TrEMBL record:
Signal peptide (from-to): none
Organism: Fluviicola chungangensis
Domain BON: 3-71, 78-146, 149-217
KW Zinc (keyword) present: no
Record SMART domains: BON (SM00749)
Organism superkingdom: Bacteria
A family per Pfam: BON
Listed name of the protein: BON domain-containing protein
Length: 227
């Protein structure tokens, strides 16, 4: 099992490896496998990239994200300018049904509301807004309208898990509560836990995912037995 010092070292190396991040401006602290990211970045997108990079590292159990966005003079926009940019960006993105969504901006924080048919459309709204220069934060309140019954959704998720080479389907349990999917069980890495959640989001009609999967890091003795 990795020590906190080893996890910290590997997270810092992962941040250095990511070309979109100015890693020298990001601090990394680790306690009991939980990583705290601090410091400043230029954009909201860079902030989220740093978070995803840290989650890739084996042994990471969670993220506490305290990064502050420090906009340059040229990147600063009024709320009106951000709202106009957000509306146009959503309008021209083919993955987003812009006629079903609205945005509002307050102090650089963009809130999106509306309804879509698929989770990927909901996620596309978030990604589009994250790419806009000047955004300081995002609240994605867009809701997914379910179209399949829970039993069909569960069958599709189980089949997707079994097809995946990176997910141990036997270690994960699936429960449907209306349009919400609850995941429990144990996996060996945070990336596997994250991958399982991403697979669920691809299922039609899923509006919410509660990921209660535990990350169980195998001991060196267990790894030796497998070799």
């Amino acid at each position: 099992m990795k020590t906190d010092a080893e996890i910290q070292k590997h997270v810092m190396e992962e941040l250095n490896w990511e070309p979109a991040i100015h890693s020298s401006e990001i601090g990394v602290a680790v306690k009991n496998g939980v990583v705290t990211l601090s410091g400043t970045v230029d954009t909201y997108q860079e902030k989220k990239i740093a978070e995803k990079a840290a989650l890739k590292v084996a042994g990471v159990k969670g993220i506490a994200e305290d990064i502050v966005i420090k906009l340059s003079y040229h990147d600063q926009r009024t709320d009106t300018e951000l709202a106009d940019a957000a509306v146009n960006a959503l309008k021209w993105n083919v993955l987003v049904p812009s006629d079903k969504n609205k945005v509002k901006v307050e102090n650089g924080w963009v809130t999106a509301e509306g309804m879509v048919d698929w989770a990927y459309e909901q996620h596309a709204v978030r990604d589009v807004l994250a790419s806009i220069t000047g955004v300081k934060g995002i609240s994605n309140l867009v809701k997914v309208t379910p179209k399949l019954n829970p039993a069909d959704v569960k069958k599709k998720i189980v089949a997707a898990f079994e097809r995946s080479a990176s997910i141990d389907a036997n270690g994960i349990h699936i429960e449907n509560v209306g349009d919400k999917v609850i995941l429990t069980g144990k996996v060996r890495s945070y990336s596997e836990k994250r991958e399982a959640e991403q697979v669920v989001w691809k299922a039609p009609g899923v509006a919410a995912v509660e990921n209660n999967i535990e990350v169980r890091i195998p001991s060196y003795a267990e790894l030796g037995r497998e070799l």
